[in-house]
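User: Predict the structure for this protein chain, please.
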Amino acid sequence: MKIFLTAAFLASANAFAPVNGPNTYVQNAPSSTVLGMAAQEPSKRKRALKTLAKTAGVLSTVAFTTAGMPPAAIAAKKAKEVVEVVEAADNTKTILTAGAGLIAAGAAAMKLTSSSSGGLAQEFLEAEPYWDQSSIPVNVYKNKSPFTGKVVSTKRIVGPKATGETCHIVIDHKGDFPYWEGQSWGVIPPGNREKDGKPHAVRLYSIASSRYGDDMTGNTGSLCVRRATYWCPELKADDPAKKGICSNFLCDTQPGDEVKMTGPAGKVMLMPEEDPATDYIMVATGTGIAPFRGFVRRLFFEDTPAAKAYKGEAWLFLGVANSDALLYDDEFQDAKSRYPNNFRLDYALSREQENKKGGKMYIQDKVEEYADEIFAKLDNGAHMYFCGLKGMMPGIQDMLAGVCEAKGIDYNEFIKGLKKKGQWHVEVY
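Assistant: Here is the predicted structure, written as structure tokens:
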């Protein structure tokens, strides 16, 4: 914050010190600061321009590299742009306006940097109040007029012994494609279908970041994508003719590549944040972890109103084949160590663990181990989420039906009641 104060004072005191003489100063500038400059003194004007440009650069650099401050960054960047335009146009009045805008940028930056913890706050993308879902964006960009984002990075995030390749892809949307945790983006892969020559259809991917993005600026979003391949028993190799068009496109992207996108889509996976004591039970297989990563980052890694208020327990179950296939484990372990009373984590590793019957440990087996506790939480208003391949649900449903039978509960009525109260959230593909 001291950097912004210093920069603002440099801009106002050094670059624009009032000059004595008639018609050589401007009163009541937008910043409410008296700024002056002798238009007939080119050397002073030149020095002022340089100082203003440097100060704008400082503000812009600090704001862009400090998470959660796009308004200040944009203002500072704009001030610098104005200076560059003015230097070419020789317009003294606009120079003064740029200086006032620069000071305003510093003030905005100081406001954004202040928080109860003394750190940076992610509050600039919140509803009012923060839990109000009436303004959530839905289907802002459609198939016929998609948004074009640019890839920031594409990274493989599984180990060498994982079953398949999964990538984490960060996409820059410059703040023009807002979304909420639990929503999906549609991706339209380039090219046309071989069978009819028409453009490829849109594919939906759950967003794997909070609304603030991995860099917490509100300018990016992330996807968690597994490369879809087809093993041909005759060729004894992957058949490139049958590979997943969109997943391979995304996993092959390089920084700067363009991605055509639609959405954001969906409301079924949103977090009901009005009651900060709500428990969340999240069940995922593979890349179905995406929306839950967004949940965890919002609640435990960001300085959001939701995080400050949260008093419940978020319980994450993830099913994958082996330890090398675990996704975002470092983040989840970090959350678990720092918030042991609010975050729980359980893995089902089908090729490394056994269930109570001696078989492979699948996601439904791991959830069943805590059936009594989970049912008690649901009775007390917890929300339960499922995301992943649709093949996960039959096993989950059979397990829950068996638990209900053992407890003397009518399974169909039990699930019907959860859906009626909005506690049951399913997104499978």
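The longest helix spans residues 42-65.
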